[in-house]
Amino acid sequence: MNTKTLEEIQKQCAKKVVSVDDFGSIETVGGIDLTFEDINANPTKGWAYLVVLDVKTLRVVYSHFVEGIVDFPYIPTFLAFRELPLMLKLYEEAKVKPDVFLIDGQGMAHPRLCGIASHFGVETGSVSIGVAKRLLIGRCEPLGKKRGSMAPIVFRGRTVGMALRTKDNTEPVYVSVGHRISLATSVELVLKLSRYRIPEPTRLAHNFLQRLRKGGL
């Protein structure tokens, strides 16, 4: 499958993204992250992990992981085609579906407005938010040093996300709509869930996978 075909799939996905609040109360939030046995190899073994937290207490109420062979190469801006199959397997197996999913990656802050968080949300019908560690597209003004400082990510004259400082004097994260949620609510929720730089659901998922990958579990 060539990249032009993949681009068209992403463009069609972007048309289905709902960027307004389309849910009831939020009681649980899940974080999904992935890791690979050899990130440079193809195929390679991969693991995906879901951790679900109670929003009020940030206590873990459920977790589950899956493993499988990943056989799509890493191509910048086409991450969903590499990681989404394992994420969908995780979603299907999970006995607890959180009210909102935080995905380690981009949502609408993507060249074709459909990063992996949006792709996951559209495929599953879930409320999803992209929380990335790096700015993929667009530009934003410098942020203040304090927790809660933020600046819009602007791409081709459109706000596609928000750079958000979740802890004093740390690097920001880059928040964007995945599906069925507004940017304002996404930012509010990510800040609420953050004790450190990375919000708790995806931070805990990442930490678990690093231990798993190193054989520490």
Q: Keyphrases for this structure?
A:
eight-stranded mixed sheet, alpha+beta, single chain, 217 residues, 5 helices, globular
Write the layout of secondary structure elements.
Blueprint: H1 3-16, E1 28-36, E2 44-54, E3 60-70, H2 79-93, E4 100-103, H3 116-124, E5 128-132, E6 150-155, E7 158-164, E8 173-179, H4 183-192, H5 200-213
Parallel strand pairs: 1-4, 4-5
Antiparallel strand pairs: 1-2, 2-3, 5-8, 6-7, 7-8
Compose a concise summary of this entry.
With 217 residues, this protein is of the alpha+beta class. Helix content is 29%, strand content 28%. The model has no long low-confidence stretch (mean pLDDT 95).
Kindly describe this structure.
Strands 3-2-1-4-5-8-7-6 form an eight-stranded mixed beta sheet, with helices on both faces. With 217 residues, the protein is α+β, with helices and mostly antiparallel strands. The model has no long low-confidence stretch (mean pLDDT 95). The radius of gyration is 16 Å and the shape is globular. α2 (79-93) packs parallel to α3 (116-124). It is built from five helices and eight strands. The protein has helices at residues 3-16, 79-93, 116-124, 183-192, 200-213; strands spanning 28-36, 44-54, 60-70, 100-103, 128-132, 150-155, 158-164, 173-179.
